[in-house]
Write a structure and sequence with these properties.
alpha/beta, TIM Barrel, two-stranded antiparallel ribbon, 10 strands
Length: 296
């Protein structure tokens, strides 16, 4: 039996997985080309041996007990792993934790393109019920600049395959990715793509150049417009104003955000717009998160 769960490199997970058992089902990201992302630059993508994961699950069962409710499968793109590997892993988790309510993972649009609806439905039946999908933008110009590898329509088609399989999608939009000149178009197209996907969860992050990424190289050459907090609030308002969602939970609680907002659509749409209108009318009174508190 493993002595402890040991993670390779820096571990990343969504904010909502803070209390989850995290297993590195795969190492790195199979795509790993997004210009803004530094999370897996130092890792070569590979699947973990199932035997190692069995040992870690046994350790977790012994030391955490049988009542683990949530598991997150790291690293960046576990969904792209072989279906049989994921099935075996999910069966091990179900046997160890009978009260398990959710297994989740990041999903790239590329992994959604290659995974069939039937495969995702079978994995859902075994417990893999939620994916985190970085949509980033609905603007094709921005998607190309970020090197997402798909355009607006391809992103929608990939996401809708997951929905057809009964998966809950948690989608992310990258505020500021359109720059100052393209801010409104980025916001409007992003609202349009989210409307077409109708995810269960929608969140916003702020595009921030970090070391080791092509985005940082561009920023150092003066090729990136970083929006200030008021400009980001205006972009967020435009995005929220365009949302026509039938039942989605919204959050801007990622550490990169200057404003922490939350609500449920459609119920809280007007309230969220009201908060942003107040911010834009009187920015001095806004409770922006200071730079030194933001985890970038």
């Amino acid at each position: 039996m493993a002595d402890v769960i040991e993670y390779e490199g820096t571990l990343y997970r969504p904010p909502s997985e803070a209390n989850s058992l995290i297993l590195q089902a795969t190492i790195g990201c199979s795509y790993n080309r997004c210009t803004f992302c530094a999370m897996y630059r130092d890792k070569a993508f590979r699947m973990r041996p199932i035997g190692e994961l069995r040992e870690e699950i046994r350790w977790a069962r012994k030391h955490m007990g049988p009542d683990v409710r949530k598991v997150f499968l790291a690293d960046g793109d576990a969904l792209v792993a072989k279906a049989r590997f994921l099935e075996d892993l999910l069966q091990e988790l179900r046997a160890a934790f009978p009260n398990l309510s959710r297994v989740s993972c990041y999903a790239s649009p590329q992994s959604l393109q290659v995974r069939s609806v039937d495969e995702m439905a079978k994995l859902r039946e075994l417990g893999l019920t939620q994916y985190y999908l970085g949509v980033e933008s609905g603007d094709n110009r921005v998607l190309e600049w970020l090197d997402k590898g798909v355009d607006h329509d391809e992103m929608v088609d990939a996401a809708n395959k997951a929905t057809a399989a009964g998966i809950k999608l948690s989608t992310m939009i990258l505020l500021g990715a359109g720059g100052r000149e393209g801010s409104l178009e980025h916001a409007r197209h992003s609202a349009r793509i989210i409307n077409r996907i109708q995810p269960r969860f929608v969140s916003t992050l702020v595009m921030t150049p970090v070391e080791g990424t092509p985005l940082m190289d561009q920023a150092e050459r003066g090729e990136v417009d970083e929006l200030d907090p008021v400009e980001l609030a205006a972009e967020l308002r435009e995005f929220i104003a365009g949302l026509q969602l039938k039942g989605s939970i919204f959050r801007s609680n990622h550490a990169s955000n200057f404003l922490a907002l939350k609500g449920t659509f459609p119920k809280d749409k007007h309230a969220l717009l009201g908060v942003l209108d107040q911010v834009l009318e009187d920015p001095q009174s806004a409770h922006f998160v200071p730079d030194w508190l933001r985890a970038l």
